[in-house]
Write a structure and sequence with these properties.
Blueprint (H helix, E strand, L loop, with lengths): L2 E5 L3 H13 L3 E5 L2 H10 L4 E5 L9 H11 L5 E5 L4 H9 L4 E4 L4 H29 L9 H15 L4 E5 L5 H10 L8 E5 L5 H9 E2 L7 E2 L1 H4 L4 E5 L6 H13 L1 E3 L6 E3 L3 E6 L3 H6 L5 H7 L2 E5 L9 H16 L8 H9 L5 H15 L23 H13 L3 H18 L4 H8 L3 H10 L9 H11 L2
Parallel strand pairs: 1-2, 1-3, 3-4, 4-5, 6-13, 6-14, 7-10, 10-13
Antiparallel strand pairs: 8-9, 11-12
Helix pairs in contact: 6-7, 13-15, 14-17, 16-17, 17-18, 18-19
The structure holds adenosine-5'-triphosphate.
């Protein structure tokens, strides 16, 4: 049954609204002050709140309560009751996130219509966001470059064990995605995957968040560790834990059990811990910012998550994957990637890694053409590109290539040189070939042999061929 919290300082109005709603099959809780309202909210979140703007004998008025609710639990829809002549305030409340307002004196039908609509909208919004979350979480890890395959092989190995894993990699490289992959393919897949962002949590709240809370006569609030029982707890950005919270976490890892805040019983849980960091923890330890013992406890199996620059040939395949994802989930146009665009995106710099690529694709699909292949002109300009070949840079590179005796080093420079030139010519293979004095087909072959994919569709196949050709 849907629970509605009614907040009004006038008893008659509270009781009237409450009785009407109960007749309609809703359950209600009724309070007259801001303190009672806050207590009711922390006791249990309602499905909807009806809130009077003016509250006598209260520390907070309706607008203060509204902003607290929208900040802390935005999923609870709030319908404002305003007195006659307070419409301006009610409109301001809507701007702050209230769903709608009803003006006193109101008629019952109008009240019921607003409430039913608010409930329906909030249900749809909840379903949509759950759907989106499910769709935004890839069911597979996309990538077939040698670097990515060796990374995936390491993940596959640890899925079978139960050991703690530390994922180290640049922002947006796919650490959480990798952690979810491990969980989903492990014997723990049937239980929860719970995440805690260590950078976002304050030291005072960590204990309650991690261990939960209980008090006499009140409900027990299980913490993240308990929620992850038999499943996996993902600790994101562990390097950002304050020294104090590092100590607390270490204690749990050592003792393997804990007490809820306010409770006395020892609780044992079986949660696998996977942690992640974008920072160099050894350096953090040397600088005295991270506890070495915690590092060793968490870092049982270290896995490096390769940045996009270490696996450029995966970029077109990932771009196509995101086009398909946004097409399926959001109805955005299902476009192709032109050969030139596929070449160009491999030369760009991607400090935000897969997330940046994903955002770029989303932006292009929203703002760009409705159909046809994505062309280099739709990609971000030189600012988003790798050092786009100044004349001086080109000379340095070609001199280096001309004088380098070692084949491997020569290939490396050649690759960088060719990438720079493709970038400079906006991904246009013909113009690049012309400039570097090669036939177009020869340039294609050369790029393939250097691990640069010139066709998005065949990208995976080519990467596989290159991989097989490697020692
Ligand atoms: N191999 C992959 N295949 C498909 N999608 C991926 C892959 N790796 C990452 N993504 C997508 O890229 C985005 C960023 O990935 P994720 O959140 O896992 O990165 P992260 O390294 O945990 O980021 P942060 O450093 O900010 O915590 C997500 O939308 C994720 O779905």
């Amino acid at each position: 049954m849907s629970d509605i919290l009614i907040v009004d300082d006038e008893r008659d109005i509270r009781e009237l609204i409450g009785d009407i709603l109960e007749d309609e099959g809703f359950s209600t809780r009724r309070v007259g002050t801001s303190d009672a309202c806050i207590a009711a909210l922390s006791d249990q979140l309602p499905a909807l709140m009806i809130l009077d703007i003016w509250l006598k004998d209260s520390d907070m008025d309706g607008i203060d309560i509204l902003s607290k609710v929208k900040r802390e639990t935005p999923e609870v829809p709030v319908v404002i009751i305003s007195g006659h002549g307070n419409v301006e305030i009610a409109v301001a409340a809507i701007k702050q996130g209230a769903y709608d307002f009803i003006e006193k004196p109101f008629n019952i039908d109008q009240l019921l219509v607003v409430i039913r609509r608010a409930m329906e909208t909030s249900r749809l919004r909840r379903e949509n966001s759950e759907l989106r979350r499910a769709e935004a979480t890839p069911t597979e890890l996309v990538g077939s470059s040698p670097a990515f395959r060796s990374f995936r092989a390491q993940l596959d190995k640890v899925t079978r064990s139960n050991g703690r894993v530390m994922l180290m990699g640049a922002p947006g490289a796919g650490k959480e995605t990798a952690a979810r992959y491990i969980h989903r393919n492990s014997p723990r897949a049937g239980a929860a995957f719970v995440t805690m962002n260590c950078a976002a949590i304050e030291a005072e709240r960590l204990e309650a968040a991690l261990f939960g809370r209980e008090s006499e006569g009140q409900q027990v609030e299980p913490g993240l560790l308990e929620q992850a029982d038999e499943g996996t707890l993902y600790l994101d950005e562990v390097a950002d834990l304050s020294p104090e919270t590092q100590g607390k976490l270490l204690r749990v890892l050592v003792d393997q059990r804990f007490q809820r805040v306010g409770g006395s019983a020892q609780i044992n849980v079986d949660a696998r811990i996977i942690s992640a960091t974008a920072r160099d923890l050894k350096r953090e330890i040397a600088a005295g910012r991270f506890r070495e013992e915690l590092y060793h406890r968490l870092n049982v199996v270290p896995i490096h998550v390769p940045a996009l620059e270490e696996r450029r040939s995966d970029i077109p395949e990932l771009a196509l994957h995101f086009i398909e994802l946004f097409h399926q989930a959001e109805g955005l146009p299902a476009r192709e990637l032109s050969e030139d665009a596929a070449a160009l995106i491999q030369t760009m710099s991607w400090p935000g890694n897969v997330r940046q690529l994903r955002n770029m694709i989303e932006r292009i699909l929203i703002l760009g053409q409705d159909r046809g292949a994505i062309e280099p002109g739709e990609l971000p300009g030189p600012d988003g590109a790798m050092g786009a070949g100044s004349e001086e840079e080109r000379l340095i590179l070609s001199n280096a290539i001309a004088h380098l005796p070692l084949r491997e080093a020569r290939e490396l420079f050649e690759r960088e040189y060719l990438l720079t030139q493709i970038n400079r010519f906006g991904g246009n293979i013909s113009r690049t070939a012309n400039f570097v004095g090669m036939e177009r087909s020869a340039l294609h072959r050369k790029l393939k042999s250097l691990g640069v994919v010139t066709s998005a569709k065949t990208g995976a196949r080519i990467a596989a061929l290159i991989d097989e050709g490697e020692p």
